[in-house]
Amino acid sequence: MTVISSNKDIEALTLTFVAEFDASAQRVWQLWEDPRQLERWWGPPTWPATFERHDFVPGGRSNYVMTGPEGEKGPGWWVTTLIQPPYRLEFEDGFADENGDPVVEMGSVRAVVTLEETEGRTRMTTVSTFANLEQMQQMSAMGMEEGMREAMGQIDLLLAEDDSA
Amino acid sequence: MVVFDLQDDEVDRIFQALADVTRRDIVVRVTQREQSVSALAASYAMSFAAVQKHVAVLERARLVVKERRGREQIVHPNPGTVREAARLLEHFEELWRFRAQSISDILSEDREEDREEDREEDREDREDREGERS
């Protein structure tokens, strides 16, 4: 995997993330389409996601729950707005209440995913646009900070082992 | 790769802004409670204009925001909408890095399985050939 670029537009609250994978677009598409594969990578570190529903059709609804290290639950929803297999996908992603219903006042993150295949490799571009700062704060509070710190800690440990070797 | 959180010149502005004891004190005061420039000026043994200048430096570094309210200029702390947005987008970027790595791990498992299957087929082919010979 190669991260090609990552660009933060602070005023538009948008992140454009581009990565390239050693697989066909069809294969990468499956990772979005199949809920069992999607949940293997969707959740933040230490907050694995479980998709209880994934209607991967235009206008289709998905429900997932992320489970934190202390067993805390972070429910979320998706509405898929556009599907052009295996090249383009658009959806709205937001916070849900305990019944899986959207928490309207939190708004949603608009995501546009494009896959481009060249010589057996696939470039995946995700453009995520946040509705507002509060939403980002909430999202960030959801284990991300904690998880990243842990992940970084592990990397440091590995590097330290290298040094001593 | 574009990694930008705060530009270098922005960082410089923040450090320069906080390098002065009066300005640090202003930040502390307005963080506790928003205050007018004249209230701040009354707290220091310096002219209104001098305090106003300090506030302007802090404003440029986005550490405080100034708002006109009637005849008063009110200074607020600025946890910095902009800075906050940068920080949060950075977290989100980390999340995408993590996701991309997880996707990559899943894809390399595929390749591992493919190789496994290839080996399996090779073995079967060999067995078939040996079966034909005998």
Automatic annotation (TrEMBL), chain A:
<feature type="domain" description="Activator of Hsp90 ATPase homologue 1/2-like C-terminal">
    <location>
        <begin position="22"/>
        <end position="159"/>
    </location>
</feature>
<protein>
    <submittedName>
        <fullName>SRPBCC domain-containing protein</fullName>
    </submittedName>
</protein>
<dbReference type="InterPro" id="IPR023393">
    <property type="entry name" value="START-like_dom_sf"/>
</dbReference>
<dbReference type="Pfam" id="PF08327">
    <property type="entry name" value="AHSA1"/>
</dbReference>
<dbReference type="InterPro" id="IPR013538">
    <property type="entry name" value="ASHA1/2-like_C"/>
</dbReference>
<comment type="similarity">
    <text>Belongs to the AHA1 family.</text>
</comment>
Automatic annotation (TrEMBL), chain B:
<protein>
    <submittedName>
        <fullName>ArsR family transcriptional regulator</fullName>
    </submittedName>
</protein>
<feature type="domain" description="HTH arsR-type">
    <location>
        <begin position="3"/>
        <end position="97"/>
    </location>
</feature>
<dbReference type="InterPro" id="IPR011991">
    <property type="entry name" value="ArsR-like_HTH"/>
</dbReference>
<feature type="compositionally biased region" description="Acidic residues">
    <location>
        <begin position="110"/>
        <end position="125"/>
    </location>
</feature>
<dbReference type="InterPro" id="IPR036388">
    <property type="entry name" value="WH-like_DNA-bd_sf"/>
</dbReference>
<dbReference type="GO" id="GO:0003700">
    <property type="term" value="F:DNA-binding transcription factor activity"/>
</dbReference>
<dbReference type="InterPro" id="IPR036390">
    <property type="entry name" value="WH_DNA-bd_sf"/>
</dbReference>
<feature type="region of interest" description="Disordered">
    <location>
        <begin position="108"/>
        <end position="134"/>
    </location>
</feature>
<dbReference type="InterPro" id="IPR001845">
    <property type="entry name" value="HTH_ArsR_DNA-bd_dom"/>
</dbReference>
